[in-house]
Design a protein that fits this description.
The relative contact order is 0.11. This protein has 3 domains: about 160 residues, 3-Layer(aba) Sandwich (Rossmann fold), CATH 3.40.50; about 130 residues, TPP-binding domain (Rossmann fold); about 180 residues, 3-Layer(aba) Sandwich (Rossmann fold), CATH 3.40.50. The protein has about 525 residues and is α/β, with parallel strands linked by helices. It contains 20 helices and 18 strands. Strand 7, helix 9 and strand 8 form a beta-alpha-beta unit.
């Protein structure tokens, strides 16, 4: 049995049924192994950042790792940006990277590189398989590492001779996912004291705390104590909409974040990290909470957030949680704006939809109106590295073929991984992409103003303006095999959105703001 066949056999034994691939010569034995042992769906991608972003989306929706299959160090390097987002999302990913045969490395061939060195910053675990005999144990260890809380990216580097050399047939190792650790008892007691004492308290939530079950518990705590609830700015997955406890996302802009925590005395972290500024600004602190506020790290990532919320709910004698009523707005009409897109989306969003949000500067205007929409999931850009929207939607659609996926896509960041549209067409992924076509890097223009550059010069204007020529998103989508339409008013947008929701397969709407 080839080493590559042992690898695929191990994936199958551990319920891994998806691989997002952009392979090269060193990975061809792995491709052959997928053919000889059916059961893993190989999804081809035209760029490694699509493969890594799709694996993230798949993991967010299933809780199970998908595999990637990447070519040597340069291929891995192309995928690192979305591995950064996956690392920040703390989702399980098995990142399989080929390498030169062990005896070929000293030849210093053109693609020779330090694959381990490239992988390490974005990985929780890295190992190079020394030979075919070691594949059985190393592959199982990689899966275990990806599933160990806090879950993360495990990178298994498979030299081509470890892939093509033969060894005896072996029984694959089945991995038990380790349980999350218990919450911090001292922090729980301190948080309970603050909540019972009527102190001004914020619960900052992420991970399973922003699931429907987690938000129901958090809502009960808030109803009893008056605590304010926030989902982390980069929450991995928020289950929201009618019938669920509502939660605001913590704002991205620095000053709005400071204002949200003004006069707060206690910040209770449940599955989330402390809120800090995305960037440093002259004369402003890194931490957003007041200096005198106490931070209670009750359930760090990798800890049982639901157990922490249940403990707090019982300790404070939590009341019944209020739930969001179904509140569908009227369809927006007139000019296309981010707010109008959000209203029409909320009115038409199908039950069970998955919304992938890379609207960047327009994100909040879409999130807020959907508060009372039909029940849906909301996935955010966890690590701030742009170019995740289209790939993440591909992975979510592969994971959940019975659910409509909607991508809210800024036009500038969408160009980073445009190739994902081709993979969506190839797989007939049920994804509706809404492009917020404002012809600029709006977030950079906002940040320049925030830094005091009220009148940017020609270089700054040139590098934050992506018009001249305007991107033709409908044409770009057509070139990738995806049907689309352009909306220059909300009446046309509503018609296109109804059409997209009434059919199966990928569809793109270019909304001209």
């Amino acid at each position: 049995m080839y080493g590559a066949e042992i690898l695929v056999k191990t994936l199958l034994a551990n319920g891994m049924d998806a691989c997002f691939a952009n392979p090269g010569t060193s990975e061809l034995h792995a491709l052959a192994a997928f053919d000889s042992m059916p059961g893993v769906r190989c999804v081809p991608t035209l760029f490694e950042g699509v493969a890594t972003g799709a694996a993230d989306g798949y993991a967010r929706m299933t809780g199970r790792p998908a595999a990637t299959l990447l070519h040597l160090g340069p291929g891995l390097a192309n995928g690192l940006a979305n591995l950064h987002n996956a690392r920040r999302a703390r989702v399980p990913v098995l990142n399989i990277v080929g390498d030169h045969a062990t005896w070929h490395r000293d030849a210093d061939a053109p693609l020779t590189s330090d694959v381990e060195g490239l992988a390490r910053p974005m990985s929780c675990w890295v190992r190079t398989v020394p030979d075919a005999v070691s594949v059985r144990v190393d592959a199982a260890e990689a899966i275990r590492a990806a599933l160990t809380p806090p879950t993360g990216v495990a990178t298994l580097i498979l030299p081509s001779d470890s892939s093509w050399d033969q060894t005896s047939d072996v029984e694959p190792i089945r991995v038990e996912a380790p349980a999350p650790t218990a919450p911090n008892a001292d922090a729980l007691r301190a948080a309970t004291e603050a909540l019972r004492g009527g102190r001004r308290t914020v619960l900052m939530l992420n991970g399973t705390a922003t699931s429907a079950a987690g938000l129901e518990l958090a809502g009960r705590i808030a109803a009893r104590t008056g605590a304010k609830l926030f989902a982390h700015t980069g929450a991995t997955r928020i289950e929201r909409g009618a019938g669920r406890a509502a939660v605001d996302r913590f704002p991205y802009p620095f000053d709005l974040g400071v204002a949200a925590l003004k006069e707060v005395e206690h910040v209770v972290l449940i599955g989330a990290t402390e809120p800090v500024g995305f960037f440093a600004y002259p004369g402003k602190p890194s931490r957003l909470a007041p200096k005198e506020a106490r931070i209670h790290n009750v359930a760090p990532p990798g800890t049982d957030a639901l157990a922490a919320l249940a403990w707090l709910a019982e300790a404070v004698g939590a009341a019944e949680a209020p739930v969001q009523a179904l509140a569908l707005p009227d369809l927006a009409t007139g000019a296309v704006t981010a707010e109008a897109i959000g209203r029409s989306l909320a009115a038409l969003l199908p039950e069970g939809a998955v919304v992938v949000d890379e609207a960047i500067s327009n994100s909040a205007m879409a999130y807020t109106p959907c508060r009372g929409a039909r029940p849906h999931d909301w996935l955010t850009i966890t690590g701030g590295s742009i170019g995740m929207g289209l790939p993440l939607a591909l992975g979510a659609a592969v994971a959940c073929p019975d659910r409509k996926v909607v991508t809210l896509q800024a036009d500038g960041s969408g160009m980073y991984t445009l190739q994902a549209l081709w993979s969506q067409a190839r797989e007939n992924a049920d994804v509706v992409t809404i492009v917020f076509a404002n012809r600029r890097y709006g977030i950079l223009q906002w940040e320049m103003a925030n830094l005091g550059f009220t009148e940017p010069g020609p270089s700054a204007r040139a590098c934050t303006d992506i018009g001249r020529p305007d991107l033709d998103w409908v044409g770009l989508a057509a070139g990738m095999g995806v049907e689309g339409g352009r909306a220059e008013d909300m009446e046309r947008f509503n018609t296109l959105l109804r059409h997209a929701f009434g059919r199966r397969g990928p569809f793109l709407i270019e909304a001209v703001l």
